[in-house]
Amino acid sequence: MLLFERSWMNRWKSAVLHEGEGNIRSVKWRGHLIAWANNMGVKIFDIISKQRITNVPRDDISLRPDMYPCSLCWKDNVTLIIGWGTSVKVCSVKERHASEMRDLPSRYVEIVSQFETEFYISGLAPLCDQLVVLSYVKEISEKTEREYCARPRLDIIQPLSETCEEISSDALTVRGFQENECRDYHLEYSEGESLFYIVSPRDVVVAKERDQDDHIDWLLEKKKYEEALMAAEISQKNIKRHKILDIGLAYINHLVERGDYDIAARKCQKILGKNAALWEYEVYKFKEIGQLKAISPYLPRGDPVLKPLIYEMILHEFLESDYEGFATLIREWPGDLYNNSVIVQAVRDHLKKDSQNKTLLKTLAELYTYDKNYGNALEIYLTLRHKDVFQLIHKHNLFSSIKDKIVLLMDFDSEKAVDMLLDNEDKISIKKVVEELEDRPELQHVYLHKLFKRDHHKGQRYHEKQISLYAEYDRPNLLPFLRDSTHCPLEKALEICQQRNFVEETVYLLSRMGNSRSALKMIMEELHDVDKAIEFAKEQDDGELWEDLILYSIDKPPFITGLLNNIGTHVDPILLIHRIKEGMEIPNLRDSLVKILQDYNLQILLREGCKKILVADSLSLLKKMHRTQMKGVLVDEENICESCLSPILPSDAAKPFSVVVFHCRHMFHKECLPMPSMNSAAQFCNICSAKNRGPGSAILEMKK
Predict the structure, then answer these.
(1) What sign does the dihedral 589-594-600-606 (CA atoms) show?
(2) Using alpha carbons only, what angle is made at residue 88 by residues 87 and 93, rounded to the nearest 5 degrees?
C-alpha cells in the first residue's frame, strides 16, 4: 500500500503504508482517514499522525477474499461501515484521552454495531441513519435440490447494537444474474443527489430514494385509496404532485363503483368538507345511481348550506318509498333548509291516498309547526292523541286556539289537561272550562275536583254542582269535600245524601246542622256501629248525647260492652252499670269492669303524679324567688328618688339618711313615701300599684 504526496519542490514522494498481507481488495479515503482491505482484514491509517490506528480482522476466513471481496464505505468523517461475507460492522473512530496515550496512536476505533445478514454482501452505502445493502443471493432448487444464483437484492436495513431490522427489500432483475458471482456486483452512491448505482457485468441500475409522491402513486396504482388518502394527509406539506381532494374524489368514485354506497357517502363528509359545489355534484351523482338515501344522513345542514332543491329532492325520494325515513329527516333537518310549503303540499297529496297514516300526519304537524301554522298542527296532534300536544300549547301560547278543544284535551290526558288549564286560568277562565265540559259531567268533576284541591274558595260558585258530581262519580271524596267546603249548601247536600242513602255523609251533615241527636240515632240504627257512635259522642261532648246513647244501648248487650270499654273518661260508668237489668248476659263483662277499674286507677295515679310535679315546681320556684329577693341591690349617686326625683343619696355622706328600695327596684326617700294605713303596716311601691303591676313590698331600708 503506497501513499504518494507532493514535496516542497512539486515532486511526488511515496511512502509505504502497509505490505506483506496479500492483495489490496478495496480502498476508501475520507478526510484524514484511509481505510483499505486485504486478505487478512481492514486497516485504518491516520494521515495527520502518520500512524495506522486499527486492524479489523476478517471474520469468516473460509471464504475466498477474491470471490467474496470486502465492501467499505464512510458514513461520515469518523464512521466506517465494513461488509464482508455475511458480516456487517459499524466502526467509529474516536479520540484517545491524553492519560491513555503513552506510545499509542491519538485515535482508536470502536465497533458500535455488528450483525450477520442472510446473504453475501456485494456493496454498502449509507442512507441517513440506515444502510443500503446490495446482496448476492444463493438459493436451493426445490426440484433438483442444487444451489443456484438468484437475483441480487437491494435492502434497506436499520442497524442495531447486535442485530438489524429490515425496512425494505427489492429483488433486482439484471441480465445474466444466473452466471454472476458475489464479486461481479458493486454498489456506489452519490451523496448530494441521493442516487445509488448498482453495477453488474452487463447492466448498471440507478436507484433513488422514494418520496411521498412516489408512495402515493404506488398506493393509487394498487387501488389502496384509503391508505393513499391517509398518507397524503400526513405528508401534505411534502407532496408536490398530488392533492388531497383529488385523491379523495378518486376514493369516492372507487367506492361507488364497488357498490359501497354508504361508505362512499360517509367519506363525503371528510373529503368534500365545506365545498358546496362539490357536495351538489356528488348528490346528483348519487341520484343518477339511485342512492340518494345513502347520502342523506351525511348532507351538511349548517356550514355550508346547499341549494333548497337538493334537500327537497332527497325528501321527495323518501316520501315516495320510506315514510319513516322521511319523518326522521323532517325531525333532524332545520326547517329553513328547504321550501316548507312545497313539502307540505307533497305530504298532503300523499295523505289523499292514505288519510289515516299516522307517520305522515305527525310529520305534517311538525311541518305546520315549522311554518308557524300552530292551529293546524294542534288539530293533528289532538287527532293523533300525541304526547307533544301540551308542549306545543305551552311553547307557542296556543291557549286561544284550544278554548273549543277542551273536551278533546281532557279525553286525551285529563291529568295533564287539568293541570295546564288550572295553571293558565288567566288565559282560559274557570267559567269557560266548566261551560265547555257541561255535556261531559265526569270530566267536569275531574276539573272541579282538582280546582277544589288547589283552592277551596276559587270555585265556590260550583260547590252546589259538585255535590251531585261527587255523589255520582267519586263518593270516597264526597265526605272530605263536605268537611272542607265552607260554601256548600247543607240542605241541598243533605237532600242528595238522603236520596242516595249515604249514611256517613248524612250523619256528618246532620251534626254540622246542629241535629246531633238525629245523627247519633242514624249511626246506631243504620250503621249499628257502637264504636262510631261513641266516637261521635266524644266529638260532640254533649251530655244529652251520652244519655241518648246509653238509653239506646241498654237493651243491647254488645253495645253495653262497647260503652263500658270506652266511656270511662267521659261519663261515670256507675250511671251505666246501675241501669243494666238484672240477669242480662253481657259478653266480656268481667274484662270490661276490670278495664274500668284500671282506667280509674290510672286516673288517680295521673292526678297524684301531676300533684307531685306541681308541688315540686312550686317549691323550686319559691326557692328561686327567695334567692333572688335576698340578693343585695346596688344604690349609688346615679339613682334617684321616684317621688321627688332628686338623687337618692345625699351629697354630704356625713348626714344621716333613710332610703327604701322595693323588689321592683324603685327607690324612695323614706320621708317621700306616704304613711302606711292603719289596716296594713306594709308599704307598697306607689308606681307599681298605680300601674296595676301588683304590690311590691320593701326589700331594703337603708339608714344612717
Answers:
(1) negative
(2) 135
Take residue 310 and report the three cell numbers written for it.
337538493
The DSSP output letter for 70 is -
Residue 354: Cβ within 10 Å count: 12
Strands (E), 524-638: none
Please provide the size of the chain in residues: 704
* DSSP count for the chain of H helices, then E strands: 28, 22
555 by Cβ neighbours in 10 Å (0-12 / 13-18 / 19+) ranks as: exposed
157: phi then psi, degrees, rounded to nearest 5:
-125, 155
Of residues 566, 587, 588, 564, the one with CA closest to residue 576: 564
Positive or negative: CA dihedral 678, 684, 689, 694: negative
- Residue-wise pLDDT for 50-94, tens only, equals 888 888 888 888 888 889 899 999 999 999 999 998 899 999 999
d(CA 121, CA 153): 10
- Dist. CA 58–CA 40, nearest whole Å: 6
Say which DSSP state 527 is in.
I
| 564: enclosing H helix or E strand | helix 557-566
Q: CA angle, corner 192, sides to 186 and 198, nearest 5?
A: 15
Half-sphere exposure of 116 (CA within 13 A, CB side): 3
Cα(229)–Cα(325) distance, rounded to whole angstroms? Answer: 32
Q: Which residues pair with 669 in a beta bridge?
A: 659
Span 635-661, pLDDT tens digits: 888 899 988 988 888 888 778 888 888
Q: Which of 347, 351, 405 minimizes the C-alpha distance to 375?
A: 405
Domain ranges of the chain: 2-172, 635-690
Q: What residues does 14 pair with on adjacent strands?
A: 4
Q: Provide DSSP, 11-51.
A: -EEEEE---SS----EEEEETTEEEEE-SSEEEEEETTTTE
Separation of alpha carbons 273 and 573, rounded Å: 98
For 252-277, the pLDDT digits (tens) are 888 888 888 888 888 888 888 888 88
DSSP for residue 581: P
The backbone torsions φ and ψ at residue 432, rounded to the nearest 5 degrees and listed phi first, read -65, -40
DSSP label at residue 386: -
Under CATH, what is the fold of the domain 2-172?
Answer: Methylamine Dehydrogenase; Chain H (2.130.10)
Q: Which residue has the higher pLDDT, 210 or 635?
A: 635
Q: How far apart are CA 295 and CA 610, in angstroms?
A: 91
DSSP string, 634-699: ---TT-B-TTT-SBSS-SSTTS--EEEEETTS-EEEGGGSPPPPSS----B-HHHHHTTS---BEE
Which of 468-479 are b and which e, b meaning 16 or more Cβ less than 10 Å from the residue's Cβ? bbbbebeeebbb
* Residue 172: strand, helix, or coil: coil
* Closest of 122, 130, 118 to residue 160, by C-alpha: 130
DSSP string, 495-517: HHHHHTT-HHHHHHHHHHTT-HH
Question: Identity (one letter) of the amino acid at 86?
Answer: T
Q: Which three cell numbers stand for residue 603?
A: 286516673
- pTM of the predicted model as reported, rounded to 2 decimal places: 0.47
**Secondary structure, 3-state, 268-324:** HHHHHCCCHHHHHHHHHHHHHCCCHHHHHHHCCCCCCCCCHHHHHHHHHHHHHHCHH
